[in-house]
Structures are given as structure tokens and as C-alpha cells.
Write a structure and sequence with these properties.
The chain is an alpha/beta fold. Helices cover about 25% and strands about 15% of the residues. The protein has four helices and four strands, in the order E-H-E-H-E-H-E-H. A four-stranded parallel sheet has the order 3-2-1-4, sandwiched between helices. Helix 1 crosses helix 4.
């Protein structure tokens, strides 16, 4: 099972790249705590999507910290990597978003996967729920979203934006 981590953000609100900030006691990135929870729940392939200039940083930091039997792919999300028939002729600095991050990973993911933001902390139950769902629906076209109660996601330290997921 694959964990797809999106880490191509610019850190504009945080002031620097939160996804690559050493927040743990041994210099761990926040995403490492999620990777640990994912590994405990049966994930065995980590795909990290980031900007081209951060690929080496991420790979050099994570590879020695992840068990050798866990596959790690660190991929650059390129604005110009678009599906056939799509084009963009403008100028854009920010990555396209979640769907494009998944598109970026199309050549390395071959089965069930979970998509998460590398700069958020989800808690072990999110990985357990995602893994259980993937195991139960391994061979069908069924999808899931791990949801949270809104009041449990709001910060006392300023505003946040949230998406609304509709069926």
C-alpha cells in the first residue's frame, strides 16, 4: 500500500517550508511522524511529491530514516507535466494541487494509495482507517475520504481554510 505525501507548497503562510522544518527532537520533519504511523499500519511505499529544488533535500533526509525494506520515491511536481490534450501557456509559480500531485505519481503507484498533506498531522487512526479501507476494497473502484469534525481542526492561533467535500 502506498502513502502519497504532497510537499510542494511554498510555505507562504508559515514563513518557510513547514513540510521540511525540523520540528522533532532529532530533527524530524512533521511528515516523518505520519510516515511512522503509516508504516505501523501496513504502508510499504512512500511517494513524496515536492518541488524540483527540494527533491535532493527530501531524499537525503528521509532515506536514512526509513527502513530499508520500505520503497521511497521522491518526485518533482512540474507545472509542465500535464495529461495529453491539456496545455498551459501562462506563468505559474505554485503547484497545481492535489489532482496534479496524484498525476505526478502515476508511474510509480500501482495499487491502493492514500493522499495526505506532508505539513499536516493526522494521527494514527487516519492511517489505520485508510489502510483498513484499502485492504477491504483492494480490487474495486471504491474511494474514501477520512473526515474530521470541523471544531477539532480549527486553530486557536488564527484563521485556517478548509475544503468542503461533497458527494
Amino acid at each position: 500500500m502506498t502513502l502519497l505525501l504532497m510537499a510542494a507548497g511554498s510555505g507562504s503562510r508559515y514563513g518557510k517550508l513547514k513540510q521540511f522544518d525540523d520540528l522533532g527532537p532529532k530533527g524530524e520533519f512533521l511528515m516523518e511522524f505520519g510516515i511512522y504511523d503509516a508504516l505501523k499500519n501496513g504502508f510499504d511505499h512512500i511517494v513524496l511529491i515536492t518541488k524540483k529544488e527540494n527533491v535532493s533535500l527530501a531524499e537525503n533526509h528521509l532515506r536514512p530514516r526509513i527502513p530499508a525494506n520500505i520503497k521511497l520515491d521522491v518526485l518533482a511536481q512540474e507545472i509542465t507535466d500535464l495529461p495529453e490534450g491539456c496545455s498551459f501557456s501562462g506563468e505559474r509559480k505554485k503547484p497545481w494541487g492535489t489532482a496534479h500531485a496524484v498525476w505526478t505519481a502515476r508511474n510509480v503507484i500501482n495499487g491502493p494509495f492514500a493522499v495526505l498533506n506532508a505539513d499536516d498531522f493526522y494521527g494514527q487512526s487516519a492511517y489505520a482507517n485508510a489502510a483498513d479501507f484499502a485492504r477491504e476494497h483492494n480490487n474495486d473502484d471504491t474511494f474514501a475520504l477520512v473526515g474530521y469534525t470541523l471544531k477539532n481542526t480549527l486553530s486557536e492561533h488564527g484563521s485556517v481554510s478548509r475544503g468542503v467535500c461533497l458527494r
